[in-house]
Every structure is written in structure tokens, then in C-alpha cells.
């Protein structure tokens, strides 16, 4: 009976975790080879952790599948999100750390850049016409801005309930609750939970507007680099994408690597990706003069 | 185009409990009780109507674009669409629609986003976000609503096609004079409307016009 199932005791879980850690290093190395030719950074090749100069790396942290995370990324800092196991989904929200009423705005991000998906070149706009962060590298090619997050009831209906009492930290967790836990730590709550991004997931809206989730979109080792243009509160959940048809609750892990980025110059790719972005960067930069 | 479900209403405007013409570029906030039917009538055609709904009992429960889109598996609203709250409850159901397609992704225009989208010197122009702020200043205290409570809104009568390859554009409206959309409240809600003053794109055919707002009691 599903309810009676118990996971292996702590020792075995720890060894599984070590194996996962080794796999992360391996996939990062493999992906570094695969993607080296895809990008044309001016000063150095930043296509993988192996080519991130050690002195640029500020910290690293792993977020387990189904987990949640929040933290402040300062202007000039980049955050690399790495898909550890393949098929990770990262629900994300961004807030101006100095005035949290200013926050990521789905509609402004989409309409200012005439897009229904995000990849390298696109930026994440706040509701104040400023750039919270820019996507400066991306091995995935499409991140979903419209699918949203599932709540506890959705998760229970789809996967069955797995409580902490029986499953310890392999319990099911929803994206909505994960985001609310992290928002609560900063004095924010449900009123601040606006339409979110889903990194690593692809949802297509065809000619009729019907949604289609593309399975197997992101692979182990895929990553996206966000360069923060403002001091930003970042709130994340690694619960499954609500449209992911996979019947088992088995969300993959996420590796976070924060690193010191070069400031965006006049010829910056994201700044020049669209004429709108040049004005967005202007609006952002005058805040720091 | 597709997924358009045209359905006429049998409700008689002469029997409406509430009938108000909202001039171009103005805000409006009003309660709609469970069981009442709310109609937005595009009097002169191609007029975007930026709309939000809050639960009258608990305004932290509000219309959610992403929950609405996901629940119906489609980004456009039309007859049969359920407008979902951020806690996964049906707030209103669209029961009639002679336009056939309404937008969930474009959100509200704002002075700040106008500087990004068009030019820095367009900041002075009136916008839907300003209307939302006016409405909150006038009436928001009744429900404890502030800027914090403003999520991504519906744009009735607005045409924002999305392509298979992930593009998005603002195009000429699919609406016309006399077209309307009608929804039944499934809970007591507070409606917040901005009759869009945007002059920089085709969403109002470069000529914002009044809309008529009607509410019927349950039959």
C-alpha cells in the first residue's frame, strides 16, 4: 500500500546524495564541452562552472527537488541555475530588495519584449519599468512565463498525499506553498505572490491559444545565468511544473552558483536585444546614480 | 484564430439592476454579488477594458491569470471560461460573449512601462495603472486594497495573439461596436476596472471610447 512505503534510513539517503553530487560535477563537465561553441562572451568563456574563473564565484548551494529557496542577489552579481537531474522546474519571483512593492511583472516582461517565452537576451521587468535581471546565458532556449504554480490541493490530486510523518523530507510539496514559505521569511505573503516564471520548462500556446507542455525539455547540466541589475530578493521553488504530465512526484534538484558579473556595457547583448531594453536599462541605471 | 465561442445573452438591459456608462480613461470599482450577472459592453468597438476581481470576503483572494489559463488549458478567454482565483476557486464564469476572444497576458499599461515600450517622453500619458491607483485611493480602503493587491489583469476585448514559436503582439481588436462579454459571479466579488486610455498601440484603435457596465440580479 502506497501509504505504508518508507524510504531507506538516513545512511542510504546520504549515499544517494553523494552519488548525486558526483553526477552534478560530471554533467557540468560534459555540458561544458557541449556548449563551449554556443556563446560569444567578450572577455572570457562563461559557458560552464569549469570556465567561471574561481575568483568570480561567490557561493554555491544545492536546492533539493520540491524544495524552496530565497536570498538577495545584489546589482552586479549573477546567479547560475543548473539543472542537476534533468527536467527540473524552478518557479521564480523577483522583488526590489529596497522596496518590495516593486516586483517582477509578467505582463510588462512579455509585452515590452513581444514574447511569450524567455531565453538569452530577454530581461525580467519590474512593474516600474526597470530591469530586475537579465538572461545573459542559457543552454535551454525556452523558459515558461505563463504556467504558474500548483497549490497543495493540485499536488494531492495529481500525485496523492505524501505527508512528512510517513515520508520525512521526501514528502510532496507544492510550488505555491514553497514560494509562500520563502515570502513569509521576508515579511511578504499571498498578496505579494504574483504571476511567476518557470525556468527550465516549456509551455507552447499554439494558434488557438491551447497550452502544450513539452516534456524532456531541460537536460541534466543545462543552465541559465541571470545577471542582476538591481538589488533583488529572489524567491524560488523546485516543485514540479503544474502542467508536467509525469505521474510520479520526483522533482529534480537545482544547483545555484552566484558569481561576480561584468557590468553591462554599451554593447551589452541584453541591453541591445530590443530597443525597449535600452530604455529599461536607462530607467534602472538612474536609480543607482 | 480559434477557440472562439460566440454566445448571445437573453438578458434585457431594461431590467438590469445597475446600468452605468464609464467614460474613456476612467476607473470603476463595484461589488457584484454571487449569482448576479455582469456585462461589459463595448459601445464603440475595439476598447480594451482592464479588469480585476477580488473576493469581497477576503480580498487577498483575487483573480489569477496563471490559474485561469492553466485550468482551461488556453490563454484566451471566451464563453465557458472560468475566472479562477489565486487559491484555485472559480470567481466568475463567462456565460455569454459576442466578441469571442479576450486577453490574459497583456496586463495593464503604466506610465513606467510606457517609457520602456514607446519612449521616455511618454511618461506623462494617462494609463490603466494610474486608474487602478485612483480607484484604490478613492475606494480601496473599504476592502483594505492597496498597490500590493494588484496582480496581472484581464483585458476584455483586447487581442494579443501568441505564436507557436513564442512570439506575442498587440493587434487590432477583434471587437466591434455593440459587442459584449457577460459573466456570472460564483462568489461575492469586488470588480476593479480601468477603461483603458492607451494611445500608443492598436488596443483601443487609437481612440479610447466609453463602455457600458450592467449588472442583473439572479432571475
Structure notes:
The complex is a heterodimer of chains A (about 290) and B (about 220). Chain A has about 290 residues and is an alpha+beta fold. Chain A has one domain (about 1-289). Chain A is built from six helices and twelve strands. In chain A, the strands form three sheets. Chain A has a six-stranded antiparallel β-sheet. Chain A has a four-stranded antiparallel β-sheet with strand order 2-11-4-7, covered by helices on one side. Chain A has a two-stranded antiparallel ribbon with strand order 8-9. The longest helix of chain A is centred in the N-terminal third of the chain and has 26 residues, at about 10-35. Residues about 1-20 and about 30-50 of chain A have low confidence and may be disordered. Chain B is an alpha+beta fold and about 220 residues long. Chain B has one domain. Chain B is built from three helices and ten strands. Chain B has helices spanning about 65-70, 110-115, 130-140; strands at about 20, 25-30, 35-40, 50-55, 80-85, 90-95, 155, 180-185, 190-195, 210-215. In chain B, strands 1-10-3-8-6-5 form a six-stranded antiparallel β-sheet. Chain B has a four-stranded antiparallel β-sheet with strand order 2-9-4-7, covered by helices on one side. In chain B, strand 5 (about 80-85) and strand 6 (about 90-95) form a beta hairpin. The longest helix of chain B has 12 residues, at about 130-140. Chain B is globular, with a radius of gyration of 16 Å. Classes of the chains: A alpha+beta (about 290), B alpha+beta (about 220). At the A-B interface, helix 2 and helix 6 of A face helix 1 and helix 2 of B.
Order of helices and strands of chain A: HEEEEHEEHHHEEEEEEH
Low-confidence regions of chain B? none
Radius of gyration of chain A: 19 Å
Q: Multimeric state of these chains? A: heterodimer
The chain-level structural class of chain B is alpha+beta
Shape of chain B: globular
Mean pLDDT of chain B: 96
Kindly report the average pLDDT value of chain A: 88
β-strand amount of chain B = 25-35%
**Strand neighbour order, sheet with most strands of chain A:** 1-12-3-10-6-5
Q: Separation of termini of chain B?
A: 35 Å
Give the helices and strands of chain B as they follow along the chain. EEEEHEEHHEEEE
How many β-strand stretches of chain A? Answer: 12
What would you call the shape of chain A? globular
Q: Please tell me the total number of domains of chain B.
A: 1
Number of helices of chain A: 6
Distance between the termini of chain A: 63 Å
Largest interface: A-B, 48 and 48 residues
- Report on the biggest sheet of chain A: 6 strands, antiparallel
Please report which band the strand proportion of chain A falls in: under 5%, 5-15%, 15-25%, 25-35%, 35-45% or over 45%: 15-25%
Amino acid at each position: 500500500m502506497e501509504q505504508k512505503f518508507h524510504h531507506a534510513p538516513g545512511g542510504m539517503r546520504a549515499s544517494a546524495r553523494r552519488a548525486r553530487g558526483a553526477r552534478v560535477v560530471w554533467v557540468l563537465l560534459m555540458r561544458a564541452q557541449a556548449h563551449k561553441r554556443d556563446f560569444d562572451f567578450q572577455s572570457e568563456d562563461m559557458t560552464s562552472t569549469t570556465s567561471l574563473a574561481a575568483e568570480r564565484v561567490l557561493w554555491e548551494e544545492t536546492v533539493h527537488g520540491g524544495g524552496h529557496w530565497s536570498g538577495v542577489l545584489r546589482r552586479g552579481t549573477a546567479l547560475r541555475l543548473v539543472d542537476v537531474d534533468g527536467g527540473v522546474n524552478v518557479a521564480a519571483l523577483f522583488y526590489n530588495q529596497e522596496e518590495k512593492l516593486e516586483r517582477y511583472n509578467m505582463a510588462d516582461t512579455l509585452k515590452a519584449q513581444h514574447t511569450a517565452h524567455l531565453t538569452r537576451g530577454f530581461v525580467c521587468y519590474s512593474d516600474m519599468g526597470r530591469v530586475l535581471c537579465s538572461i545573459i546565458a542559457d543552454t535551454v532556449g525556452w523558459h515558461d512565463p505563463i504556467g504558474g504554480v500548483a497549490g497543495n490541493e493540485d499536488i494531492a490530486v495529481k500525485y496523492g498525499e505524501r505527508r512528512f510523518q510517513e515520508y520525512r523530507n521526501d514528502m510532496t510539496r507544492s510550488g505555491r506553498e514553497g514560494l509562500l514559505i520563502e515570502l513569509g521569511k521576508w515579511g511578504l505573503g499571498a498578496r505579494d505572490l504574483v504571476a511567476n516564471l518557470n525556468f527550465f520548462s516549456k509551455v507552447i500556446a499554439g494558434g488557438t491559444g491551447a497550452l502544450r507542455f513539452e516534456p524532456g525539455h531541460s537536460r541534466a547540466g543545462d543552465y541559465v545565468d541571470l545577471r542582476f541589475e538591481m538589488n533583488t530578493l529572489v524567491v524560488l521553488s523546485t516543485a514540479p511544473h503544474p502542467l508536467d504530465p509525469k505521474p510520479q512526484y520526483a522533482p529534480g534538484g537545482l544547483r545555484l552558483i552566484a558569481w561576480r558579473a561584468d557590468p553591462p556595457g554599451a554593447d551589452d547583448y541584453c541591453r541591445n536585444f530590443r530597443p525597449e531594453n535600452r530604455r529599461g536599462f536607462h530607467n534602472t541605471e538612474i536609480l543607482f546614480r | 484564430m480559434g477557440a472562439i465561442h460566440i454566445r448571445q445573452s437573453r438578458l434585457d438591459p431594461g431590467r438590469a439592476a445597475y446600468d452605468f456608462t464609464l467614460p474613456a480613461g476612467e476607473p470603476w470599482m463595484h461589488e457584484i454579488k454571487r449569482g448576479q450577472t455582469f456585462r461589459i459592453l463595448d459601445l464603440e468597438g475595439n476598447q480594451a477594458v482592464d479588469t480585476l476581481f477580488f473576493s469581497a470576503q477576503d480580498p487577498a483572494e483575487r483573480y489569477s491569470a496563471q490559474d485561469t489559463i492553466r485550468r482551461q488549458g488556453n490563454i484566451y478567454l471566451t464563453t465557458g471560461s472560468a475566472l479562477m482565483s489565486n487559491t484555485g476557486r472559480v470567481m466568475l464564469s463567462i456565460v455569454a460573449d459576442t466578441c469571442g476572444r479576450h486577453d490574459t497576458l497583456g496586463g495593464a499599461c503604466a506610465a513606467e512601462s510606457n517609457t520602456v515600450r514607446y519612449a521616455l517622453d511618454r511618461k506623462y500619458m494617462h494609463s490603466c495603472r494610474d486608474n487602478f491607483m485612483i480607484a484604490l485611493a478613492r475606494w480601496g480602503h473599504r476592502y483594505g486594497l492597496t498597490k500590493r493587491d494588484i496582480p496581472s489583469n484581464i483585458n476584455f476585448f483586447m487581442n494579443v495573439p501568441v505564436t507557436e514559436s513564442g512570439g506575442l503582439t498587440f493587434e487590432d481588436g477583434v471587437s466591434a461596436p455593440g459587442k459584449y462579454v457577460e459573466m456570472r459571479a460564483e462568489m461575492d466579488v469586488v470588480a476593479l476596472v480601468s477603461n483603458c486610455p492607451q494611445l500608443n498601440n492598436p488596443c483601443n484603435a487609437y481612440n479610447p471610447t466609453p463602455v457600458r457596465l450592467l449588472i442583473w440580479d439572479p432571475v
